[in-house]
Amino acid sequence: MALKFMWGFEIGAAIDYYAHSGWGVPLGASSTGSNYALYDSQYYEAHQPPTNVGGGSRCLKQTSYYQHHTVYPGDVGDLLAFSGTYSEVTTPVTGSPGWVTTSGFVHFSFKHDFDFDQDITSAPNPLGKWIHLCTLSSGSATSSMGSHNPFFDGQLLNNTAGSDMWMPLPNTINTHGTHREKGYRPLAPISFYLVRQSGNNGPCSGSGDAIVAILYYTDGVGDPASMVFSSSIGGVQQSVEIEKDIWTKFTILYKGSDWNGKVKVWQDGELKMDENGKTRGTTANWNWNSVTFSPHGKYATRPANDFPASVWPEYSQLVDHIFIWDDINNPVDIRQSTSSLFIQGLFPDGDRVDGHFYNDIGNQVDLYKYINDPGDPTELEASYITANPAPSTLCSFNVQNKVDIENGALNWQDYSSQIKEVLAVSSVAACTKDGTPGSANYQGSALVGYNAAYTTGPPIVIEENRLVWDFSETNVDSGGSWTGGALGPLKVGFKVQPE
């Protein structure tokens, strides 16, 4: 199993940096437009481990736009008649160009403020409530949205008998195809939802709180348009934690296959869904390489009509500590991916190599002080370092040792015995080019080092605000695994060269 991606939002960069760096952010959003008000990639909260130390200080916050029907639900045009947009974010494709996998793990922390306790008992036939958790996607590293369309699902798709009023579930291949251009996401292998069901009329076997997976069986002749799994093991429904304002961790294992696939979900290390067998259409594309987060939820009733006025309510969600691995080889992989994983940001705290870099007042004194995020509400660009990319040059910095990290009541050093292993270390830089008209683009690379040894990430062309990063699963000096002790001599840096 190889780690393909890890991210903790500790860099403190605005969402436009992500949009320009291979992350999927809906097209048409501008840094000054109202769409970007739905994103906060600098949000000052992080999922902390039980020790309250070692979990960083920031996360991603997404807010759904208030959605409300103006025509009878089920009208096809209603699907795109919403005002506003969803604040969708898709992780970038990393690793080798065009990397995809048919099987792998996704791990992340999640918190929301959707009101699952909203009283809808006076609605005609109240069914329950749901919110979107995530979707495994097939993205592109070379465009801001890749092969995706933004989400507009969860809608009553048609008025025909048997149409689904609960979830985005067209009941035939034809209706699935009809809505392919309507924002429904048939190209994704699988989506996950948190559901509170009332009674037996819904995607779960009975009332309660559950995780629901919708597998999209597109492209397969004779295959149904989709298939639903709910959180169960051996046919027994498993209760999950879906209440608002509670951080929880999810690990998802998905293997696409028309005969020996797997769909497994763990919440806080406890197995909640265990499905094996056919998990994709016979001739469908089973590949995926990214995960999409998009807050949208519904108070489900039959018929939806106008009850309540907030059938599609506005709410927010937080996402943190994202990991993606390919392949599913052995029990060690499951143990690692379902563990309690946290990403801790380490600030640079001393210069090591200055190269031809200078601070924003034109000298080379304490460059590290000019690249520390100065904190909210000061913008990231309040201080910076600069360099001419010709000739090539690099800078590197010492970083905080664990003895200097304090996120809560305990210092990380005091609780280091509980840190079982270090999966990987990463270096992330937020960069831009000279704003002078006609200034040339350049290439930038992130460095991860230990003592005098470095690993350098692939060079990225910098033509606007961009994030550049690299991570290493092995100690670049010794070749072994990273340890807590090895974080002391850790070095990070940045290299520039002509385009």
How do the helices and strands line up, and which of them pair or pack?
Blueprint: E1 2-7, H1 15-19, E2 39-43, E3 59-63, E4 89-90, E5 103-112, E6 126-137, H2 173-178, E7 190-197, E8 208-216, E9 226-230, E10 232-233, E11 236-237, E12 248-255, E13 261-267, E14 270-277, E15 290-293, E16 297-301, E17 316-326, H3 331-337, E18 348-353, E19 358-359, E20 385-386, E21 393-399, E22 425-431, E23 442-450, E24 453-456, E25 460-462, E26 466-472, E27 490-498
Antiparallel strand pairs: 1-17, 2-3, 3-17, 4-15, 5-12, 5-17, 6-7, 6-15, 6-16, 7-8, 8-9, 10-11, 12-13, 13-14, 18-21, 19-20, 21-27, 22-26, 23-24, 23-25, 23-27
Please, could you describe this protein's structure?
The chain has 499 residues and is mainly β. The protein has 2 domains: 2-337, Sandwich (Jelly Rolls), CATH 2.60.120; 348-498, no CATH class. Helices cover 4% and strands 33% of the residues. The protein is built from 3 helices and 27 strands. The protein has helices at 15-19, 173-178, 331-337, and strands at 2-7, 39-43, 59-63, 89-90, 103-112, 126-137, 190-197, 208-216, 226-230, 232-233, 236-237, 248-255, 261-267, 270-277, 290-293, 297-301, 316-326, 348-353, 358-359, 385-386, 393-399, 425-431, 442-450, 453-456, 460-462, 466-472, 490-498. The strands form 6 sheets. Strands 1, 2, 3, 5, 12, 13, 14 and 17 form an 8-stranded antiparallel beta sheet that branches. Strands 4, 6, 7, 8, 9, 15 and 16 form a 7-stranded antiparallel beta sheet that branches. Strands 18, 21, 23, 24, 25 and 27 form a 6-stranded antiparallel beta sheet that branches. It is globular.
